[in-house]
Each structure stands twice: as structure tokens, then as C-alpha cells.
Amino acid sequence: YGETLPWDLKDDNGKPIDDLPVVYVSRRDAIRFAGFIGMRLPTETEWTRAARGDGTNVWPWGQKKDLGDKFSEQVLGLMKLENNRDRMLKPVGTVEFNAGPFGHVDMTGQVWQFVSGTGFGPITGQKVFGEEWKLVQKDKNGSALKDIPAWKDDRFLVKGGSYLSSGDPVQLQIDCRFPVQDSEVLESVGLRLAKSL
User: Fold this and answer.
1) Please, are residues 112 and 184 in contact by the beta-carbon 8 Å criterion?
2) Angle at 20 between CA 191 and CA 181, to 5 degrees
3) Which tens digit of pLDDT belongs to each residue from 30-43?
């Protein structure tokens, strides 16, 4: 409803920002806003399905046969993240490459997005993770990893990576998640809304 507001949304230089994603919002405020308009945050499963579709790909573009399910410098160009001057918030939906297989815009490479649920732990659960960790420790290269990730039950998840993720592209993988505190606000974290049918 931004166009109905009685004031212009502009940055410090007078440039309109009403078509940019909302950032610097806490998870707590995102939940309140969603509830106020009769919506909610997507679950991690819903977000993942919107980004991956029906496939098993690791990267959001993994179903595009010409690129394959891997990262390349070409992808940064397609995401409009190749140059430093392009690594900024962009108007919603303007980077077609960042759309999910069902048409959801800006699934990755724009802003991290809150998902509902609590706790930062292994996606597959502690038992499966523990078994896999033992296997990794037996591997010559894997044994270099000495510390188990710091799982925290009091954290909340964001997904999708952001315009700041070009320097660490693993953040753009569909299953990548980042823990944040309930009241934390960051320049590259925003929200996506969902609605139960």
C-alpha cells in the first residue's frame, strides 16, 4: 500500500525508495507487521520450496541447464552483483534472474529474508548431523574442521543471501541459513510475507 501513503519515501539524496525492499527491520517487527495485514512469515520449508521448486538443486539457478547446478562468475553478472557499484539494494523484481521457479521475485541476492520458527540447528537434526560429522572427521580434508558449528536455540533464521553475498557466494545456496537475534536489525535483512490458504 506504499502508493497510498501521504508522504514520499526518499533517501538522504531525495531519490525515491518506495520500490526497494524493507530492511533494518527486526524479526519481532516483521512478525507484527505481517500479522497486522493478515499474513505471516514463510516457514523455512515454504521458503526453500519457493526457491528450489520441485528439484533437488543446491543453487537457485540449478535447474537452468545452460548454467548447471554450480556457482560461476557468470552468475554474479546475471544477478547484477558483478561490480561493486551494483552491490546495493535494487527495486523489487528488477533482476529477473533472481526469481524462483514459481515466479517469486528476489529469492536470492537481494536481502536475507526472515523465516518463521525458532532455533538454529542442523537442517537434518542433531542425530543425522552427528553421524555425518564423524564421517567428515575421518576424511583427510574434513578433519581440518575442528569445531562443530555453534548451534543456538535462541536464534532465528534468515535465508536467501543478499547483495553483500557476492564475496561469499556459499550464502546464495538454497539451504544456506544465517542465525539472528529476535531484536537484531541489519542493512541486508528484510522480509517476505506468506499467507495460509
Assistant:
1) no
2) 30
3) 999 999 999 999 99
pTM: 0.87
pLDDT in tens, 92-142: 999 999 999 999 999 999 999 999 988 999 988 899 999 999 999 999 898
